[in-house]
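Customer escalation, tier 2.

The customer says the design service returned an amino acid string that "doesn't look like it belongs to this structure." They asked us to rerun it and document both sides in this ticket. The original structure tokens are below, unchanged.
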């Protein structure tokens, strides 16, 4: 319980998160994935979107038939959103377009700005 207390959101951030979820149609439960491209290129081997989706597909294989296949997608590369939507038309990918654009356009130094971090949360 102490960890939950320490990591609680301030009221203004709680409202920001609520509004962001509402604006993209976020409904729980929903699996999510983070596909990093721009800042991880030097640190990690490239992974195709199919590798990410294998876990998502397993998740939905264990759900009731007919459930809408929705995925929360966090990424710093707009092309990933397009790629996933084209390759997996039976899925609805929810993402915050403004955060994706800001992350992809951001210089390395601005990745640590307050605006970017609020978008990440």
């Amino acid at each position: 319980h102490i960890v939950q207390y320490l990591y609680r959101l301030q009221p203004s951030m709680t409202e920001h998160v609520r509004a962001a979820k509402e604006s993209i149609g976020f409904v729980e439960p929903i699996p999510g994935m983070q596909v990093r491209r721009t800042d991880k290129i030097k640190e990690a081997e490239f992974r195709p979107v199919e590798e990410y989706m294998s876990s998502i597909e397993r998740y939905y294989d264990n759900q009731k038939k007919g459930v809408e296949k929705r995925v929360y997608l966090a990424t710093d590369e707009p092309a990933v959103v397009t790629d996933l939507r084209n390759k997996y038309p039976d899925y609805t990918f929810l993402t915050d377009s403004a955060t994706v654009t800001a992350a992809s356009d951001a210089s390395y130094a601005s990745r640590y700005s307050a605006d970017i971090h609020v978008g990440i949360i």
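Tier 2 assessment: The sequence is consistent with the input. The first helix runs from residue 2 to 6. The radius of gyration is 16 Å. Sent an explanation to the customer and offered a walkthrough call.
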